[in-house]
Automatic annotation (TrEMBL):
Name under which the protein is recorded: 5-methyltetrahydropteroyltriglutamate--homocysteine methyltransferase
Domain Cobalamin-independent methionine synthase MetE C-terminal/archaeal stretches: 431-753
Every Cobalamin-independent methionine synthase MetE N-terminal domain range: 5-313
PANTHER family named in the record: 5-METHYLTETRAHYDROPTEROYLTRIGLUTAMATE--HOMOCYSTEINE METHYLTRANSFERASE
Entry annotated with the keyword Iron: no
UniProt binding sites for L-methionine: 436-438, 489, 604
Membrane-spanning ranges: none
Family: Belongs to the vitamin-B12 independent methionine synthase family.
A GO molecular-function annotation: 5-methyltetrahydropteroyltriglutamate-homocysteine S-methyltransferase activity
Annotated residues for binding of L-homocysteine: 436-438, 489, 604
Catalytic activity from the UniProt record: 5-methyltetrahydropteroyltri-L-glutamate + L-homocysteine = tetrahydropteroyltri-L-glutamate + L-methionine
Lineage: Bacteria, Bacillati, Bacillota, Bacilli, Bacillales
Length: 762
């Protein structure tokens, strides 16, 4: 039997975020393009060598990017929207980053979540362009690895069905034409890789795990029939992940050399399908046995047992031992995390540690012995040590969760009655203007916080700085003319990490970064114990800000589901139970803000949708407890306390009902890159509560004009009644520069004033 170790993909961020730093130096024009390319090459080769040294036998090529892999593929196929023709004299790299980030001349392409993860990809836009192969970057990376390191890698690219599934701009009539244009290009890429010596080519098709109708399955069969006929000598392995393979008996028999299955998130259903249908004996089976989305070490004995069962059920001769998905969703290595509690540190496995686990398992399957004595007992010991730790035995938290009643999930009166009372109490103008919460985290803010954490300045000095920065931005907001202000969140590093630092049950890493979008990296907290509120977390800063102005200052909190979905979460209890613990903790903070006189409280849930299972038949269970967790946090407030929430990029067209179920008085939605789509959705599915559609894209450095924002507001007015209409940017402004922020918000407020005047004149 042939056994091979591999992973679907590996983090490209670098152990010390060197990839991020290189990109940002280039964007700031601190380095020229040739230096930029050379530095990226060094990073690219180092990560391949690192995987080789860790013991991987088959190393993936093409999982590296200069911003986003979906964007890479779109540009490689010349799927470039017409609006970027304005940059026809610019370099290819300038156009690439214009699509990713926008410029003064042109807006960026739409961004949305990659399946049910916190990674954002750039949405391909089909405009019936002439498609052709512009530059086979995967071939270049393959030859680079071969020539520089002697590595014959496994090239990977996102498959044609998934790529079209993620794209926009076509309808049922033009979709077939889109496929017909793409397939020869895929064939050309694959043929070039085969000619260059690639033994295997990985085609990633995560969309194969979604609900598929019969016509979609027929389409997939035809797509792969044509593709494999075009390049018959290619050994293609279709890689699925995030769930079990849909229509197992059909898709496992596609005319390819191998299939990769997720035996972590799709274990139960994939096992059931293997038992029912078997597996083609002439195909290679890649077993995704190591969880690519969490940071917990594996029980080696259980992993080997699962593989043994898969071997027996499938009867194949060629097995690959792999991660369940790309390891880009976890940090690079835990080596820097020596300050964590030892029982937690021992139970962690980041990307490098997961590769070692794969190597150990592969060695055992190949030779029947473990490469290190006592390794299985050790893997069980560290898991049991954490499971029995006192931090997971908080009886008070357990009693609070068990005491939750149905009445804890609803406000005392319906929205329409609350709306009347809030309007009378708050006395806000029509089309009130506000921001989502955070203001620019300047280098001075970051430097001062770093000095405080290193104890180079005192607590008193740091508090004084935060107060000064808050006061400065309260004044700026008043000068701009915003109606509802925020304190700016200068004391916060991250919208999840900050709250975790004040709650029990959390741990924090030093260098465990993962990419969220572009060069934006996050350092997810680790929820490894019971979560409990012990003291006010935000009251001091918000109350101090409120004293500086006669306008309302919003209390700013992160919601329970976002904290859950943007953390690495313990596995010994259900995610629902952890979510309820978080909901109860945020409920306590809401009460503390109310008691301090704060009348508007925003509880952000940008990650609500990304927790959805990929299969729609599993949505209801998740949405029930996810929405209930938010309502648990908000249901106890006074009738005239106004609850806001916020959501980030995601497809809202099929998500209006869950948003409505939150029963928030006002929701702001991140929609500037896909504004027209939500407008059309609201025409069909009206929204009865307060709503603010993001009027400009904060992920781009460009400053929108008054006319541009006014056009968006007027379009929105067609579907949002005046009494429900709020005006706000897309998201928080933490990553923007101060000059950009002030200019953009000034234009936004001016556009809102023009709209008020227009409505009054009618």
């Amino acid at each position: 039997m042939n056994i091979v170790s591999n992973v679907i993909g590996y983090p490209y961020i670098g152990a010390n975020r060197e990839w991020k730093q290189t990109l940002e130096k280039f964007w700031k024009k601190e380095i020229e393009e040739d230096v930029f390319e050379e530095q990226l090459k060094i990073i690219r080769l180092n990560r391949l060598k690192r995987q080789q040294d860790l013991g991987l036998q088959l190393i993936t090529i093409g999982d590296y990017t200069k911003y986003d892999r979906v964007l890479d593929l779109a540009v490689m196929f010349n799927l470039i929207p017409e609006r970027y023709n304005i940059l026809q004299n610019a370099s290819p790299l300038t156009k690439y980053y214009a699509m990713a980030r926008g410029t003064d001349e042109v807006i960026a392409s739409e961004m949305t979540k990659w399946f049910n993860t916190n990674y954002h990809y750039i949405v391909p836009e089909y405009e019936n362009q002439e498609l052709f192969l512009t530059n086979n970057y995967i071939l270049q990376q393959f030859e680079e690895a071969k020539n520089e390191l002697g590595i014959i890698g496994k090239p990977t690219l996102i498959g044609p069905y998934t790529f079209v599934d993620l794209a926009k701009g076509y309808d049922e009539k033009t979709r077939a034409a889109f496929f017909l244009k793409l397939l020869p290009l895929y064939a050309e890429v694959i043929q070039q890789l085969v000619d260059a010596g690639a033994d295997w080519i990985q085609i990633e098709e995560p969309s194969f795990t979604k609900n598929l109708e019969e016509e979609e399955i027929l389409l997939i069969e035809e797509v792969y029939k044509q593709l494999t006929e075009a390049v018959p000598q290619a050994n293609i392995l279709i890689q699925t992940y995030f769930e079990a393979l849909t229509s197992f008996e059909r898709l496992c028999n596609l005319p390819v050399a191998g299939i990769g299955l997720d035996f972590v998130h799709g274990k139960k259903e994939n096992m059931k399908s293997l038992l029912q249908y078997g597996f083609p004996k002439d195909k290679t089976l890649s077993i995704g046995i190591i969880n690519g989305r969490d940071i917990w070490s594996v029980n080696l004995a259980e992993a080997v047992s699962t593989i043994s069962t898969v071997k027996q059920l499938s009867g194949v001769n060629d097995l690959w031992i792999s991660s369940s998905c790309s390891l880009q969703h976890v940090p690079v290595t835990k080596k820097s995390e020596q300050n964590l509690p030892h029982e937690l540190y021992d139970a962690l496995a980041f990307a490098d540690e997961k590769i070692r686990e794969i190597a150990h398992i592969t060695n055992y399957i190949q030779h029947g012995t473990w490469s290190k004595e006592g390794i299985v007992a050790d893997s069980i010991k560290v898991i049991e040590s954490l499971a029995t730790h006192a931090i997971r035995k908080n009886e008070q938290v357990k009693a609070l969760v068990e005491g939750i009643k149905d009445s804890d999930f609803s406000r005392s009166v319906p929205f329409k009655e609350r709306q009347v009372l809030q309007k009378k109490s708050l006395k806000l103008p029509d089309f009130p203007t506000t921001t989502i919460g955070s203001f620019p985290q300047s280098q001075l803010v970051k430097k001062t916080r770093s000095a405080w954490r290193k104890k180079e300045i005192t607590d008193e000095q740091y508090d004084a700085f935060v107060k000064e920065e808050t006061a400065r931005w309260i004044q700026i907001q008043e000068e701009i003319g915003l109606d509802v202000l925020v304190h700016g969140e200068f004391e916060r590093t991250d919208m999840v990490e900050y709250f975790g630092e004040h709650l029990t049950g959390f741990a924090f890493t030093k260098n465990a970064w993962v990419v969220s979008y572009g060069s934006r990296c996050v350092k997810p907290p680790i929820i490894y114990g019971d979560v409990e509120w012990t003291h006010p977390m935000t009251v001091k800063e918000v109350v101090e800000a409120q004293k500086l102005t006669s306008r309302y200052v919003k209390g700013m909190l992160t919601g329970p589901i976002t904290i859950l979905n943007w953390s690495f979460v313990r596995e010994d209890i259900s995610r629902k139970e952890v979510a309820f613990q978080l909901g109860l903790a945020i409920q306590q903070e809401v009460k503390a803000l109310e008691d301090a006189g704060i009348k508007i409280i925003q509880i952000d849930e940008p990650a609500l949708r990304e927790g959805l299972p990929l299969r729609k038949e599993n949505w209801d269970e998740y949405l029930q407890w996810a929405v209930d967790s938010f309502k648990l946090a908000t249901s106890k407030v006074a009738v005239d306390t106004q609850i806001h929430t916020h959501m980030c990029y995601c497809e809202f067209n099929d998500f209006i009902d869950p948003i409505r179920a939150l029963d928030a008085d006002v929701i702001s939605l991140e929609t500037s890159r896909s504004h027209g789509e939500l407008i059309n959705s609201l025409k069909v599915h009206p929204y009865e509560l307060g709503i603010g559609l993001g009027v400009y894209d904060i992920h781009s450095p460009r400053i929108p004009s008054v006319a541009e924002i006014s056009s968006i507001l007027e379009e929105s007015l067609a579907v949002i009644p005046t009494e429900q209409f709020w005006v706000n940017p897309d998201c928080g402004l933490k990553t923007r520069h101060e000059s950009e922020t002030i200019a953009s918000l000034t234009n936004m407020v001016e556009a809102a004033k023009l709209l008020r005047a227009q409505v009054l004149s009618v």
